[in-house]
Each structure stands twice: as C-alpha cells, then as structure tokens.
Design goal:
Elements: H1 8-18, E1 23-27, H2 53-58, H3 60-77, H4 84-92, E2 96-98, H5 104-108, E3 113-115, E4 118-125, E5 131-133, H6 134-144, E6 185-189, H7 198-210, E7 213-217, H8 224-235, E8 240-243, E9 256-258, H9 262-273
Parallel strand pairs: 1-2, 1-7, 2-3, 7-8, 8-9
Antiparallel strand pairs: 4-5, 4-6
Length: about 280
C-alpha cells in the first residue's frame, strides 16, 4: 500500500506551530525506511522477535545467533545512507532525540543528536568496557567464518532496524571474543529488556523542557522510551506535533497529527520554513 504524501494544509499547520519557536525532534525507525532500513512497528512492518538483553547475556547460543544475523545484516545495514528526511531535519537545525541506532542523523549533518538507544557502529565488551568499531568486528567475524558468504539486500523483509537479519544460523558459527580481556562482545545499543542509560534520559528531558514544541517524526511511540517525552511535553502544555504513517500511542495528545510519509513531510516542512519560502 503506497505511503501517502502530506496534504499542503498539514504541512502549513506544522509550519505555523514551529515558525519562530525553539523546538526539538524525536525520531523513530520510520525516518530511516527510505534508507532501506525497515521499521519494527509500522503498518507494513514484518512481525519479528528481537533478542532480549537477558538472552544475550545468559545464553551463548543466543549470542551466536545474534552475531551471525548481525554479520549478514551489516553487509547491507552498514552501507545505508541518509535520506531526504534526515537531510531536511539537518537543514532545519533542531536538536534531535532519536530512537534509531543507525547514526544517519549525524551523517546527514545534524549537530545536536542524542542517540537514545546507542549506536550500532560501536561494540562494547561486557567484561572490561573496551569500545571498538562494528566495522572492525565485521572483519573479525568474516575472517573467523570464511565459508559464510552472500548479502541481504537493503529493504529485504529479513533485514531489521537494529542491523541484524531474521535468518537461520549455522551451529558452528564462531563469535570472536574481546581482544583486550577475552570477554563477551555486545553491540553498544540498548536491547529489549535493557534500560536506557540515565544520563541520556536526563539530557533528553532537558531538551524537551527547553523547547517550545516537540515534533515526533517516524515513531509509533509504542515503547515508553519515546512515549514518555511526548507525554511530558503534552503535560507541560508544549505543542506536540506527530508525523507518522500509521497510528501512534500519543495521537490523542497531538496538537497537529499528520498521517503521511515521514521523509516527504519533513522535506515539505523544510521548504516551507526556509527563508526563501517567505
């Protein structure tokens, strides 16, 4: 089913609220779908069963399955590029709180970004805390498993928004250990069942408190990590604007609600708010 473009009246309503105000954006997976990274919960999303933090920590077979799928998914996920929606937000210059782990806002040029759930391009050792790059681990994974080839095309149903893939894993897959201490390696992202670090939450609330409007872009607000900021803004009387294809958990709180493509709406909004448009 085609994702609708925004109506001019909807774009005008967004621009009317944001013009002349300090505002912050809260983004979710829906802003990255045009970069070939799928959405967990959009209307067209494929049902998935993502790994939990508890499983990853306690079960070696769960880690093996995760890293195999991550190795395959990273071959596509790792080359994803910012799309027009990311570039439009960068052009608008507002601070961003993102639930995504793909670093596409930074790569699009946004200067103030809080990566609420971490970044998939970093790897952390659960024993000693050593940080390394996901690209480095990809090389180690492929060197340790030379018989595993192939790619998953960007946008394929199997690819998932956290960079792994929903495919069966081989029993003999080898997972490298930390080079520093031999400990367990984990992507530096917040898994399901894991808490967002408190400093990130506090910094995000500070951005919302300093803003005169909150724009939600591409998030269904299904999980509390994002929903709490929408509720906080609404409770404080701060205008809440929601751009998302499909329903969200904060639709009843929205000052303006636009059910349309995230990227196309943000591009139209950036055009409307640019000096040349006035």
């Amino acid at each position: 089913m085609p994702i609708p473009d925004p109506r001019p009246a909807d774009v005008a309503a967004l621009a009317d609220v944001l013009s002349g105000r300090r505002w912050v954006a809260l983004t979710g997976a829906g802003i990255s779908t045009d970069s070939g990274i799928p959405d967990y919960r959009g209307p067209d999303a494929r049902p998935t069963n993502p790994i939990t933090y508890g499983d990853f920590v306690r079960r070696p077979e769960a880690r093996r399955r995760y890293w195999f799928r991550s190795m395959m998914g990273f071959r596509s996920f790792g080359v994803a590029q910012p799309n027009a929606g990311h570039r439009a937000l960068a052009q608008l210059g507002a601070p961003i709180i993102t639930q995504n782990v793909d670093a596409l806002h930074e790569r699009a040029g946004s200067r103030e970004v809080i990566d609420l759930h971490g970044l998939i391009d970093r790897v952390i050792c659960l024993a000693c805390g050593d940080l390394s790059t996901r690209t480095d681990l990809q090389i180690r994974l492929e060197d340790a498993n030379p018989g595993i080839t192939g790619t998953i095309p960007a946008g394929a149903a199997e690819l998932r928004p956290d960079g792994d893939a929903d495919i069966a894993d081989p029993d003999d897959f080898v997972v490298p250990a930390c080079r520093v201490c031999g400990g367990v390696l984990k992507p530096d992202v917040v898994f399901f069942g894991e808490s967002v670090p408190k400093p990130r939450v506090e910094a995000s609330f500070a951005l919302v408190d300093a803003a005169q409007a909150l724009l939600v872009a591409g998030s269904s607000l299904t999980v509390m990590s994002g929903l709490r900021f929408a509720r906080h803004a609404a409770k404080a009387g701060v205008p809440l604007l929601i751009v998302n294809h499909g329903a969200t958990r904060a639709d009843d709180l929205a000052t303006v609600r636009v059910d349309a493509g995230t990227s196309t709406t943000l591009v139209a909004l950036a055009d409307s708010l640019s000096p040349a448009a006035h």
